[in-house]
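Quick one: structure for this chain?
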Amino acid sequence: WYAKTYGKGAFTYSDDWRGFNCPSWALIEVRTGGKNDRREDIFMNCLIDAVWEKEGDHPFYFIGTSVEGEKEEGKSLRNNEIAHALFTVDADYENSASELLTAWAQGGDQGEFNKASQVLAEMGYHASTIVDELHAYCATGLCEELEGVVSKKLMKPFKKLFQEYKAKSEKGKK
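Got it. Here's what it folds into:
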């Protein structure tokens, strides 16, 4: 989809975006289907296999950032990608974030929600990712295009939720 829509047939995602995130279901689909004989594909398949073997049926997530993104945005960019991962692999986090999004979309700030969604669509985000993107930007800091569209007050509960679950996930690693 991305290559056809934005890359004129070439996969330019890594040139177009500073942060990257990919859920296990997509990684496994790519791993098990199609031709993967380039050196980069073989390396990525080894990583997918190692994590898939360890995690089994549990969902997992790959995140990454570009060198340019790290230089300019650093921790905030990584946190944005971590928010996407939590939204996918932690059902409690996803449910809590979805409740906040629903309250925003159906509450008094519905126009703000619609405008923010429209801005992300115009930036090139696929319709299927808008809700996750809104949550991640509200939880970790807005991109330039959303500043002035989403209020700081609205972001507070998203930020609090993210910090709570990020801390829990870090404790679980030890």
